[in-house]
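Batch manifest, entry 17 of 40.
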Amino acid sequence: MTELKRNRSLRVLAVQVLCGGLLAGAAWLPAAHAGDAAAGAAAWVQEHPQPNGAPARSCATCHTDDLTQPGRHAKTGKPIEPMAPSVNPERLSDQAKVEKWLRRNCRWTLGRECTAAEKADFLTYIKSQ
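Output type: C-alpha coordinates
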Protein backbone atom coordinates (compact mmCIF):
# COMPACT_ATOMS: atom_id res chain seq x y z
CA MET A 1 0.00 0.00 0.00
CA THR A 2 1.43 3.35 -0.93
CA GLU A 3 1.94 5.96 1.77
CA LEU A 4 -0.70 8.20 0.17
CA LYS A 5 -3.31 5.41 0.19
CA ARG A 6 -2.37 4.47 3.76
CA ASN A 7 -2.73 8.09 4.94
CA ARG A 8 -6.10 8.34 3.20
CA SER A 9 -7.18 5.08 4.83
CA LEU A 10 -6.14 6.39 8.24
CA ARG A 11 -8.16 9.57 7.69
CA VAL A 12 -11.18 7.49 6.70
CA LEU A 13 -10.75 5.43 9.86
CA ALA A 14 -10.57 8.57 11.99
CA VAL A 15 -13.81 9.85 10.45
CA GLN A 16 -15.48 6.49 11.07
CA VAL A 17 -14.40 6.51 14.70
CA LEU A 18 -15.55 10.09 15.21
CA CYS A 19 -18.90 9.37 13.57
CA GLY A 20 -19.35 6.08 15.39
CA GLY A 21 -19.57 4.22 12.10
CA LEU A 22 -17.52 1.21 13.15
CA LEU A 23 -19.42 -1.98 13.76
CA ALA A 24 -19.53 -3.67 17.14
CA GLY A 25 -17.43 -6.73 17.86
CA ALA A 26 -14.34 -7.96 16.08
CA ALA A 27 -15.67 -6.90 12.68
CA TRP A 28 -14.50 -3.34 13.37
CA LEU A 29 -10.79 -4.08 12.97
CA PRO A 30 -9.06 -0.90 11.78
CA ALA A 31 -9.78 -0.40 8.11
CA ALA A 32 -6.34 1.07 7.45
CA HIS A 33 -4.69 -2.27 8.17
CA ALA A 34 -6.27 -5.70 7.72
CA GLY A 35 -4.17 -7.18 10.50
CA ASP A 36 -1.43 -9.77 10.38
CA ALA A 37 -1.72 -12.59 12.94
CA ALA A 38 1.99 -13.48 12.61
CA ALA A 39 3.01 -9.88 13.27
CA GLY A 40 0.60 -9.77 16.21
CA ALA A 41 2.06 -12.99 17.62
CA ALA A 42 5.60 -11.63 17.35
CA ALA A 43 4.61 -8.31 18.93
CA TRP A 44 2.75 -10.18 21.71
CA VAL A 45 5.98 -11.64 23.12
CA GLN A 46 8.33 -8.75 22.27
CA GLU A 47 9.75 -7.33 25.49
CA HIS A 48 9.88 -3.59 26.07
CA PRO A 49 12.35 -2.06 28.54
CA GLN A 50 10.70 0.08 31.21
CA PRO A 51 12.00 3.57 31.94
CA ASN A 52 11.60 3.26 35.73
CA GLY A 53 13.95 0.29 36.05
CA ALA A 54 11.11 -2.23 36.29
CA PRO A 55 11.60 -5.54 34.45
CA ALA A 56 10.93 -5.48 30.70
CA ARG A 57 7.32 -6.21 29.75
CA SER A 58 5.46 -7.84 26.90
CA CYS A 59 1.78 -8.63 26.44
CA ALA A 60 2.62 -12.18 27.49
CA THR A 61 3.95 -10.90 30.82
CA CYS A 62 0.36 -10.62 32.09
CA HIS A 63 -1.70 -12.48 29.48
CA THR A 64 0.73 -15.42 28.95
CA ASP A 65 1.83 -16.68 25.56
CA ASP A 66 -1.07 -19.17 25.56
CA LEU A 67 -4.12 -16.98 25.09
CA THR A 68 -6.44 -19.88 25.95
CA GLN A 69 -5.16 -19.79 29.55
CA PRO A 70 -5.85 -17.22 32.26
CA GLY A 71 -3.20 -14.66 33.04
CA ARG A 72 -2.24 -12.56 36.04
CA HIS A 73 -1.37 -8.85 36.18
CA ALA A 74 2.37 -8.52 36.78
CA LYS A 75 2.06 -5.65 39.27
CA THR A 76 -1.23 -6.25 41.10
CA GLY A 77 -1.49 -10.03 40.81
CA LYS A 78 -5.12 -9.65 39.70
CA PRO A 79 -6.37 -12.65 37.66
CA ILE A 80 -7.06 -12.01 33.97
CA GLU A 81 -9.54 -14.11 32.01
CA PRO A 82 -8.20 -15.88 28.88
CA MET A 83 -7.85 -13.60 25.86
CA ALA A 84 -8.80 -16.19 23.24
CA PRO A 85 -12.39 -15.77 22.00
CA SER A 86 -12.44 -19.54 21.43
CA VAL A 87 -12.54 -20.08 25.21
CA ASN A 88 -13.83 -16.67 26.28
CA PRO A 89 -16.56 -15.59 23.82
CA GLU A 90 -16.91 -12.20 25.58
CA ARG A 91 -13.48 -11.14 24.28
CA LEU A 92 -13.53 -8.61 21.46
CA SER A 93 -17.31 -8.30 21.71
CA ASP A 94 -17.43 -4.73 23.08
CA GLN A 95 -15.63 -2.11 20.98
CA ALA A 96 -15.42 0.42 23.80
CA LYS A 97 -13.82 -2.11 26.16
CA VAL A 98 -11.35 -3.25 23.52
CA GLU A 99 -10.31 0.34 22.79
CA LYS A 100 -10.02 1.11 26.51
CA TRP A 101 -7.83 -1.89 27.25
CA LEU A 102 -5.68 -1.52 24.15
CA ARG A 103 -5.01 2.11 25.07
CA ARG A 104 -4.26 1.26 28.72
CA ASN A 105 -2.16 -1.84 28.02
CA CYS A 106 -0.18 -0.29 25.17
CA ARG A 107 0.73 2.64 27.39
CA TRP A 108 1.69 0.34 30.28
CA THR A 109 3.68 -2.12 28.18
CA LEU A 110 5.07 -0.09 25.27
CA GLY A 111 5.11 3.30 27.00
CA ARG A 112 2.89 4.76 24.25
CA GLU A 113 -0.39 4.15 22.49
CA CYS A 114 -0.41 1.48 19.81
CA THR A 115 -0.73 2.46 16.18
CA ALA A 116 -3.79 1.39 14.19
CA ALA A 117 -1.64 -1.24 12.45
CA GLU A 118 -0.40 -2.64 15.77
CA LYS A 119 -3.95 -2.79 17.11
CA ALA A 120 -5.12 -4.61 14.00
CA ASP A 121 -2.24 -7.08 14.27
CA PHE A 122 -2.95 -7.76 17.96
CA LEU A 123 -6.69 -8.17 17.35
CA THR A 124 -6.14 -10.46 14.38
CA TYR A 125 -3.76 -12.59 16.44
CA ILE A 126 -6.11 -12.74 19.43
CA LYS A 127 -9.05 -13.59 17.17
CA SER A 128 -7.07 -16.48 15.68
CA GLN A 129 -6.64 -18.19 19.05
